Input
Amino acid sequence: METWSPPREKQSSQDSTTGAIGHRNNTQILLDELQKKFVNHRNNLWVNDHLQLKNPQTNETLPNFYAAGDLAELPVIKSAGWANFMGTLASTNVISSLFEDKLVQSLPQDLLSKNHMIVIAGDEDVISEINGEVVLNLPYYVDQYKSYCMEKVLSIYT
Output
């Protein structure tokens, strides 16, 4: 089987990569200094739009440290869909920062700025709730969902 690896000058190493499954964030694995700077009162990590650690009071950012899923402090209802989206966004930014020295994806501010929830029901219905108004198949969300699904399908077959 043939494998691909990046050019030697673009290879990277890390001190650790941690994944976890559970019902409580385990931020205790972080150094005390990182806990003091980046862990909030809900035991979540503060992040910027690229999911890099960022302290909102000091604006200090750790450019090579990403958090996604339940661990990331965001104004959304945490769900598997959001966790999947954040994992894709963070990994895309890690790869692009290694190979292109830039971040290419950020969180959608228009979705984060609203108090909302989105539920996908069956193959075609998208039920959204924004500030108390429930809407079936709001075109914006339907288009976003179709785009998301097509990206997933294309990534499998290309």
Observations:
- Helices lie at 32-38, 80-100, 109-112, 139-157.
